[in-house]
Amino acid sequence: MVALTETEHRALARLEERERHFRRGATLQRENDRTGELFVLRKGVVMSSVLLDDGSRQILRFHFPGDLLAVSSLIYNEAPETITALSDCTVCPFERPTFSALMIEHPRIAALVLVYNQIERVALTDRLAALGRTSAKARVAAVLIEMRNRMRMLDKRIGDSFVLGLTQEEIGDATGLTAVHVNRMLRQLEDEGMIAREAGRMRLLNEPALARAANFVDRYKGLDLSWLPASRG
């Protein structure tokens, strides 16, 4: 997105001086807990979610290495969401004062954090619109494309075949569907020649058709970053 200077790289490295390791299913932060720490996700995949009044779970976002986690801890005393490991993962915790100092010393990094949060906000808006206005097939198709695209951003070798790493229940919690309904939609996408499932891997056979079915918009494209302040070093 933006080429950082060596000074900026060193400044960001200060956020990753400590490590914590979590197994799949472990909770990094629980909704309504007292907050304080933020995290950089170094390895693995995690999800953010909220618990609804009926006891069901709504997954808000999936997060990948390089993402900032628990950014809402900057402005709330109690966590508004739960963060859970979807795979064995490594996170780097840091405190609010560390982040505050970084933003003062490096305004371009502060601006990039704003960019990141706006991408997340728009992606959540897309998810909200999908839950209220699109078909079950479109919602499931959008999750498949989003997961593959995020993986490809980290590893350019990833093509049409990838390990999804989500259960049908987790897809359902992200799309407002039951696991049974998710399974039905996956079979429909297979029957229509858009995807194939083989040996634990997902293959996108007809990505243009899948994107049309999902009404998918890649929110990491079409960014205008010409306004970013200059680096201080």
UniProtKB/TrEMBL annotation:
CDD domains named in the record: CAP_ED, HTH_CRP
Domain of life (superkingdom): Bacteria
Positions of the Cyclic nucleotide-binding domain: 1-103
Alphabetized SMART domains for the sequence: cNMP (SM00100), HTH_CRP (SM00419)
HTH crp-type domain sequence ranges: 134-208
Cited InterPro entries: cNMP-bd_dom, cNMP-bd_dom_sf, Env_Response_Regulators, HTH_CRP, RmlC-like_jellyroll, WH-like_DNA-bd_sf, WH_DNA-bd_sf
Gene3D superfamilies linked to this entry: Jelly Rolls (2.60.120.10), Winged helix-like DNA-binding domain superfamily/Winged helix DNA-binding domain (1.10.10.10)
Keywords: DNA-binding, Transcription, Transcription regulation
Entry annotated with the keyword Transferase: no
Pfam families: cNMP_binding (PF00027), HTH_Crp_2 (PF13545)
Protein name per Swiss-Prot or TrEMBL: Crp/Fnr family transcriptional regulator
Taxonomic lineage from the root: Bacteria, Pseudomonadati, Pseudomonadota, Alphaproteobacteria, Sphingomonadales
